[in-house]
Write a structure and sequence with these properties.
This protein has helices at 12-23, 38-41, 57-67, 72-76, 78-90, 149-156, 175-182, 185-198, 216-227, 241-256, 383-386, 389-405; strands at 2-8, 28-32, 98-99, 106-109, 115-118, 121-122, 136-141, 159-163, 204-208, 230-234, 260-263, 267-273, 276-284, 287-298, 309-310, 315-316, 371-372. With 407 residues, the chain is of the alpha/beta class. It has two domains: 2-41 and 60-95 and 244-405, FAD/NAD(P)-binding domain (3-Layer(bba) Sandwich); 111-235, Rossmann fold (3-Layer(aba) Sandwich). Strands 1, 2, 11, 12, 13, 14 and 17 form a seven-stranded mixed sheet that branches. A four-stranded parallel sheet has the order 8-7-9-10, with helices on both faces. Strands 3-6 form a two-stranded antiparallel ribbon.
């Protein structure tokens, strides 16, 4: 079957690419073996954590672009970054929306008991901004091993409690199971009543980020009504329930707009003719299905998403075999100290592109004319250290598709 655009990868960059293409009236297929890293790591939207305190994001991005001419943001520019973020925000109307604080980064508590800078915050986490430490109670659950309330509270200099689950059968819980339980009114009432009994004048109550999958604001509001306190979520270890909320919203909206989803299978091969991709093959045992398009968006991420792989000799991109600048030998992938303050060279591996996100080699020659590459698979960024992962994914997913469509 033929499409106008085929998006390979269901992370945030792929979802943004699909959204941008279908809004332009294109027939779109999105393919992914899973839900990308959204459901693992994403809770808030980091745009650039390196922006100094008190500086608005646009000014911080302008300074960053001036000092990092090869960075993915530098290929986009401030105007398109703003457009991309607005496009993302538009998909999340109230009650579950994303917002900034005075267009600046703000500090939110984490499941490790630290404070980290982030930019776009979901409604359920707003109460954690400017944490009133002496007036905060951190709540955990016995049997839930991905969040230790007393440790978090000790680090944040406030009080923590660990509640016994109201049902004896739940001795160990996953984040997904607990989030589903939170959507039961009877469960919320039991939890909320117990918390109210244990409040010692606290006005804020922090929970691990498990306040429901589909109705998180309703869960939050219900707990606030019972306890009389401001309730908020704290990001925790994977899996990320807030990340799943983002993915589910994109999927629901894209399907309504006519995007075809092929979830659970990865692209096994690309069909190339000269400098053009004529089609891709998807292995769905025992069959191989072929799909073609005018344009292809490669948004497969780095190592976690399988966008980059490694063997005993080299790091490689498995679908189009695009060139990757990298250390000459495996011995050069890591520094002698694993916890070095310097970046490990393996994390510098990524796809080179021109200013329109079409892949090029180290000489700057175009590799494929109808393939565009957004997301963390790109070279010249250190998204984890920069705290820019979601921002890069949103902005490049949007911009690469705009360039691909010539709009």
């Amino acid at each position: 079957m033929h499409y106008d655009v085929i998006v390979i990868g269901m992370g945030l960059s792929g979802l943004m690419a699909a959204k941008t293409a279908v809004e332009a009236g294109k027939k779109v297929l999105i393919i992914g073996k899973g839900m990308g890293s959204l459901c693992l790591f994403s809770n808030t939207i980091d745009v650039l954590g390196k922006v100094p305190d008190g500086i608005e994001m646009n000014e911080g991005l302008s300074r960053w672009i001036s000092g990092h001419p090869n960075h993915p943001y530098s290929k986009i520019g401030i105007e398109k970054i703003e457009e991309a973020l607005s496009s993302f925000i538009s998909l999340f109307p109230p009650p579950y929306s994303f917002q900034t604080v005075d267009n600046k980064n703000c500090l939110l508590p984490t499941g490790a008991g630290t404070l980290r800078p982030t930019y776009l915050i979901p409604t359920t986490m707003v109460g954690g901004i400017s944490l009133p430490k002496e007036n905060t109670l951190i709540v955990g659950f016995r049997g839930f091993k991905d969040f230790y309330a007393h440790h978090v509270a000790d680090q944040l200099k406030c009080r923590g409690i660990s509640l016994q689950l109201p049902y004896d059968s739940f001795r160990e819980l996953s984040a997904s199971a607990l989030a589903r339980l939170m959507e039961r009114e009877s469960f919320r009432e039991t939890i909320g009543t117990e918390i109210k009994k244990q409040l010692h004048g606290e006005t804020h109550v922090g929970f691990p980020a498990i306040l429901g999958i589909h109705n998180s604001v309703q869960v939050k509001d219900g707990l606030e009504k019972i306890t009389g306190a401001t309730v908020y979520e704290i990001p925790i270890l994977p899996p990320s329930i807030p990340g799943k909320r983002i993915f589910d919203r994109f999927k629901e909206w894209l399907i309504q707009k006519g995007v075809t989803f092929l979830l659970g299978n990865s692209v096994s091969n690309s069909i190339l003719k000269g400098r053009r991709c004529e089609g891709i093959e998807v292995f769905r045992p025992p069959l191989i299905s072929s799909y073609s398009a005018d344009r292809y968006i490669l948004a497969t991420g780095r190592f976690v998403g399988g966008g980059l792989k490694a063997n005993d000799e080299r790091i490689f991109e498995p679908i189009f075999n695009l060139p990757l600048p990298q250390p000459e030998s495996r011995e050069g992938w890591f520094r002698k100290s694993f916890f070095s303050d310097l970046f490990h060279p393996i994390y510098q591996a990524g796809i080179l592109t021109d200013s329109s996100f079409r892949p090029v080699d180290e000489r700057g020659d175009h590799m494929l004319e109808n393939v565009w590459v957004p997301g963390t698979i790109l070279a010249h960024h250190h998204a984890i250290d920069e705290k820019s992962k979601e921002g890069i994914e949103i902005a490049t997913g949007y911009a690469a598709t705009i360039y691909a469509l010539g709009t």
